[in-house]
Amino acid sequence: MSLTHKVQKADAIIQATGGDEWRRLKEICTRIRRSENQLLAEAVPMMEQCIHHCKGLCCQNIYPDEIITFADNVLVLALHPNLKPAMSAAARHESLFTSSCVFLEGGKGPCMFPPDLRPERCLTTFCADETPIRREIQEVRRAFSHLHRFLIWRQPRLIKEWVWNVLPS
Question: For 66-107, what is each residue's pLDDT tens digit?
């Protein structure tokens, strides 16, 4: 699935979500954001090394489509719908070959996503010893697993509604 498709599909899911389902989605996304904030607070020395020593090396020579998932797009658009135009425009620059992440502003950075609202893999992967922040990384992954389950269990209900609307009464 291409990044453009992931952004469009995430936006469509969000637009079609209302009522209790929307409140549940917002709760899940807020929990992810809280766990990402805790991870960032504990990973200050590692993040400083990433910024000052590596200078975003992990955002270069990658396949962004393999790193940024559909759930990541749902998370960002649920909490920051104003980023949709910028994300859509950036996703159109996706390459079939390795390249810098399309979500880096100006192709070099910084990342267009807020620091406490980054894709799961971007915040849970470090090139240093992760032992001191293992618990926080696990919490971010656990919070994301709730979002994945929400999105998976949402699909059968949508199919049932679609069939119900298509079949003659």
Answer: 889 999 999 999 999 999 999 999 999 888 777 888 998 877
| pTM across the whole model | 0.84
Opening angle at CA 135, ends 132 and 136, nearest 5: 90
Q: What letter represents residue 77's amino acid?
A: L
Q: How many CB atoms lie within 10 A of CB 50?
A: 18
Domain that holds residue 51: 3-166
| Tokens representing residue 60 in the block | 């270069």
Chain-centre distance of CA 62, in angstroms?
A: 16
Question: Could you give the residue ranges of the DSSP H alpha helices within the chain?
Answer: 3-16, 19-42, 44-49, 64-67, 70-79, 84-91, 120-124, 134-166
Residues 119, 67: Cα–Cα separation, whole Å? 8
For the chain, how many structural domains are there in total?
Answer: 1
Residue with tokens 């971007």: 122
Residue type, 10: A
- Asked if 83 contacts 113 with a C-beta cutoff of 8 angstroms, the reply is yes
